[in-house]
Design goal:
Layout: E1 3-9, H1 15-25, E2 29-31, H2 34-40, H3 48-63, E3 70-74, H4 77-88, H5 93-101, E4 106-110, H6 128-141, E5 146-149, H7 154-164
Parallel strand pairs: 1-3, 1-4, 2-3, 4-5
Length: 165
């Protein structure tokens, strides 16, 4: 049975590392965070149209056919929806339908219990708890099964593995 699993969480909550580790553990596929690549490779500041381009690429990634039973998405459309709402105060009408059409089988919501690591594309070091609550609200509103994930290092990874098994 194929499983599409979203790794959600605020900035610097270990999503990328976790997605790679889980893909390795489950002999699955890790789909890297497209938003990070996009922002790092396009002139700043980014705008609404850039976030739309990111969302459309995420839709393409979510709809793609993968050769493994487990596919781990390092961020996905719910994070992008919150990004639109929080930064611009508006969400494109087509995004809601896309979230329904690209439904994930399960999500891990990474808690902001890891130290914040500053880098040039991270914007919200003091808003991680708030953003986490928005992600959780959206997961509940779309009725997507999820678990909260906490712990540091191997504990976090082992907690994730246990939740997925």
């Amino acid at each position: 049975m194929k499983m599409k699993i979203g790794i959600l969480g605020a900035e610097s909550t270990g999503k990328s590392t976790l997605a790679e580790q889980l893909a390795s553990h489950f002999s699955g596929t890790c789909v890297p965070e497209y938003a990070r690549w996009y922002v790092e490779n396009h002139p700043l500041p980014y705008g609404f149209a850039d976030v739309e381009a990111i969302a459309r690429k995420q839709i393409e990634q979510l709809k793609a056919d993968y050769d493994t039973d487990y596919v781990f998405f390092d961020t996905e459309l719910i994070i992008t929806k919150v990004w639109f709402a929080d930064k611009y105060g508006v969400v494109p009408q087509w995004l809601d339908q896309a979230i329904h059409e690209c439904r994930l089988d399960f999500c891990l919501l990474c808690m902001p219990d890891l130290p914040f690591q500053t880098d040039p594309v991270r914007e919200n070091p003091d808003r991680r708890e708030y953003l986490t609550s928005l992600y959780e609200y959206e997961l509940n509103s779309y009725n997507i099964p999820y678990s909260l994930l906490s712990g540091k290092g191997e504990v976090r990874l082992n907690n994730a593995i246990r939740l997925l098994e």
